[in-house]
Every structure is written in C-alpha cells, then in structure tokens.
Design goal:
Layout (H helix, E strand, L loop, with lengths): L15 H4 L7 E4 L6 E6 L7 H14 L5 E4 L3 H15 L7 E4 L2 H10 L12 E7 L2 E3 L5 E2 L11 H10 E9 L3 E2 L4 E8 L3 H11 L4 E5 L21 E8 L6 H9 L4 E4 L1 E2 L5 E6 L2 E6 L10
Length: 298
C-alpha cells in the first residue's frame, strides 16, 4: 500500500525544505522487484522548477559533510546544488569543502558560489559526486549523460572519470526522465581516424533499432556530421546513437559499445552504489540501488 502525504493547497512551495527535515513526512520502502531502496516525500508545487531546487537542496543537506571532496556535476539541478552549497559554506553550516568540477560550467558556478576548487588528478580521493542525468533506467539506475552540447573544454571522458572515482554518486533527474525503458540518444566518443568504419559497425549492431549520426560542431546534425564535425579536446568525434524504440537493457547496450574497436567512451554510467533523486511537481523520490538498508535523512 502506498503512502502519500501532501501539503495543503495554500502552502508555499518553499515550505518543502521543512519536509526534508521531518522523518514523519517520509515513506520508506524496499522494492521487492529490484531491491531498490526508496524514500518518498509529497508536496504540491505551483512552480515546476521548485522540484529541481528541492532535489538540489536535498543532495547537499543529506549527503554533503564538512571536510569532503566533492565532484561538481553539470546541468540545471547541479548548478542549483552548487549555488546552495556555496550558501551553506558562507553561513558556516558546512566547512572545509573542496570541489572538483566536471566541466567549465560547474567550475564557473562554483567560483561564483565561493567554493574552493581543485582540478582532478589520477588517484584523487573524491568522497561524493553529484550530476544531472539526461535519462535513467528505473530498474538498474543506469543513466545517460552528455546529450547536451559541449561547451569549451567540456569532456564526457573527464565527467565520467570524476563520477566513477567518487565513493558515492548522486544523480538528479526529473520524473518524466525516469523510465522503465530508455530510448533516445547515447553519445559515443570514437577515434577520429577511420571513424566511418566504427560508425558503420555500430549501425550494423543496432540495425533497425537506432540511427547513428556524427555530431557537428556547428549547424545541423546528420549521418556524416556535416562539413564541420565536432572534435573534442581529446581529438575524438562524437556519434549520437539514437534509439527510436525503448532499449531492453541500457547496461547491455553499454557493454556492447565497450567491445567495439574505435569506441573510446560513451555517455552511459552505471554505478553501485548510486542514489537517484527524482524531482516531480508532487515532491521527491529518492532511490538507492545498494542492497543494504541505510537510515533515511528525510
């Protein structure tokens, strides 16, 4: 039996911060189907962006502790979390934080928020990382990142390295992007030399299920990437493998891509442990794919 709790219709959306501090207003259960741990809060928001703000604050309030090294993700929700983390640092609620930006945008937001920054180096110990997910598979919490247009020195490779190096990963996502079966594009980084052979092999493997387009630097996308194909800072091209129907398993697709000669990296991330914070107009759902129960911070 599901438990739902709602604020009165006259309540302000910003009272939602109080929800996260009150255990009695949370519902905690374990999914018998896939052993995912879930926490749910219910609230009504007149402002659609309030759900992402609530998710960003929850990521900071529940998981960030003083003295941590934190991977700072990209996207709207991550920017909100970075801004809120900066506020908490300024008032002394959290101290001695070091941020590791995953991209130019997160570095800029962190600098404006007053968060001390370091560049990631191999072997750097990261306690926690948070990031936006473009879409996520409900059963596994496998997610896709990197669909957005890259800016400046942004790198999907660097972003994934930082996320996978963290002891704990938090992914923030909107409810409509949290799906039983995932479709749409997966960005795939490939070697620019003999790129067409790699693209044709991927096309043959997913024939009838996906279209393979090379991402352009400017102008419109197309099978060949136009006259100005995108070249990443590492010297690679990006293929957008666009699945026109839902995938049976995002994890299996990722494993298949890993085995293709010429593929350097892709936008699928699958971690255990991983915590997903799902924002909707009705509140938050927090899903954890670890198999051991942990205490709720709600």
């Amino acid at each position: 039996m599901a438990l739902a709790w709602a604020l009165p219709s006259s309540a302000s959306p910003f009272i939602s911060s109080y929800i996260l501090q009150t255990r009695k207003q949370a519902y905690n259960f374990v999914s018998s189907r896939n052993s995912l741990q879930r926490f749910v809060t219910r609230s009504n928001f007149s402002d659609p962006s309030a759900g992402l703000l609530l998710a960003a604050k929850h990521a900071v309030d529940s998981y960030v502790k003083s003295g941590m090294v934190i991977g700072l993700g990209s996207g709207h929700a991550s920017a909100l979390a970075i801004q809120y983390l900066g506020q908490q640092l300024r008032v002394g609620a959290i101290k001695d934080i070091t941020g590791i930006p995953t991209c130019v945008g997160s570095a800029s937001e962190a600098a404006k928020a007053g968060i001390p920054l370091e560049q990631y180096n191999d072997g750097y110990m990261i306690d926690l990382a948070f990031d936006d997910a473009d879409t996520m598979e409900e059963e596994t919490l496998a997610a896709i990142i990197g669909r957005r247009k890259l800016q400046g020195d942004d790198s999907i490779i660097q972003e994934k390295i930082i996320l996978e190096a963290a002891d704990k990963l938090i992914l923030i996502i909107k409810e409509k992007q949290f799906k039983g079966s995932v479709d749409g594009s997966i960005p795939v980084l490939i070697k620019s030399v003999n790129w067409l052979e790699t693209a044709e092999e991927i096309d043959d493997l997913f024939l009838g299920d996906a279209e393979v387009w090379r991402r352009p630097a400017i102008g419109y996308a197309g099978p060949l990437g136009g006259d100005f194909p995108l070249v990443t800072k590492e010297g690679h091209n990006i293929l957008d493998v666009i699945f026109t129907s839902p995938m049976e398993s995002l994890v299996e697709v990722a494993k298949t891509l890993d085995q293709i000669d010429g593929v350097v990296e892709h936008g699928v991330i699958f971690r255990n442990p991983c915590t997903a914070i799902i924002a909707s107009e009705n509140g938050l759902q927090v899903v954890d794919n670890t198999f051991q129960m942990e205490s709720s911070n709600l």
